[in-house]
Amino acid sequence: MKRYFKNIWDSFYTIAIGMGVTFRHLFSRAVTIQYPDVKPELTDRARNRLYVNMDDCIGCDQCSKACPVNCIEIETVKAVPPDDLGVTSTGNPKRLWVTKFDIDIAKCCYCGLCVYPCPTECIKMTDVYEFSEFDRHNLVYNYSTMTPAEIEEAKQKFEKWQADKAAAKKAAAEKKKEGGEKPKAKKQESDESSDNTKSES
Ligand code: SF4
Ligand code: SF4
């Protein structure tokens, strides 16, 4: 019987403690916000979704190499004459077509290590944090601005340039070889004539 009344007392006592805490908070400043109607204020260096300004990307691969989880994939093709890709806004010459620049943001751990080595400061953390998707494949962001046709054209130009270069190198080597054989032939001729002179005398 004693235990029965003690349990009733404990119940009312603990409810009173809980309600006391609730009552105190009725008069203190709220620390929560009505998200998503109210957005939280982010600090200047908050790390959220990445952004790449492809106009300034030189395809150097530094960001990809720095990524600890390998979520950046870059493919490039060398630009060949007469194509001139110009320079970035930081003055760095652009020599490569960036045919692929994918970031799998689902793998990203927001460490920011890809941002610091970029020589043109074109990869940045933004304040965008609302980018959830139902299909995680949609979290692979393709930043390359080239169309499949442009990529194919760039590849073909590079292959042709390489083939032309190899042919020119081969031709130069053959020419050099021929040039090296002629003096030998001349030497042979002079040796023969000196032999003839000796035999006549
Ligand atoms: S923030 Fe970190 S994990 Fe994400 S892409 Fe950059 S280096 Fe990789
Ligand atoms: S480090 Fe910068 S310039 Fe180099 S590939 Fe990455 S984003 Fe482009």
Describe the structure.
The protein is of the alpha+beta class and 201 residues long. The chain has a domain at 50-146: Alpha-Beta Plaits, CATH 3.30.70.3270. The protein is 41% helix and 12% strand. The chain has helices at 2-25, 62-66, 148-200, and strands spanning 50-52, 72-78, 96-104, 123-125, 140-142. The longest helix has 53 residues, at 148-200. The chain is rod-shaped and about 120 Å long. One iron/sulfur cluster binds at residues 52, 57-63, 74, 117-120, 122-123. One iron/sulfur cluster is lined by residues 50, 66-67, 69, 71-72, 103, 108-114.
Summary keywords:
single chain, 201 residues, alpha+beta, three-stranded antiparallel β-sheet, two-stranded antiparallel ribbon, 3 helices, 41% helix, binds iron/sulfur cluster
In brief:
The chain is α+β, with helices and mostly antiparallel strands and 201 residues long.
In this entry the ligands are: iron/sulfur cluster
* Low-confidence residue ranges: 197-201
Overall helicity: 40-55%
First-last Cα distance:
150 Å
What is the CATH topology of the domain at 50-146? Alpha-Beta Plaits
C-alpha-based Rg, rounded: 37 Å
Number of helices: 3
Give the SSE order as H and E letters.
HEHEEEEH
Strand order of the largest sheet: 2-3-5
Largest sheet data: 3 strands, antiparallel
The average pLDDT value, as a whole number, equals 89
CATH class of the domain at 50-146: Alpha Beta
Quickly give the structural class: alpha+beta
How many individual β-strands? Answer: 5
What is the global morphology?
rod-shaped
Q: What is the beta-strand fraction?
A: 5-15%
- Second rung of CATH, namely the architecture of the domain at 50-146: 2-Layer Sandwich
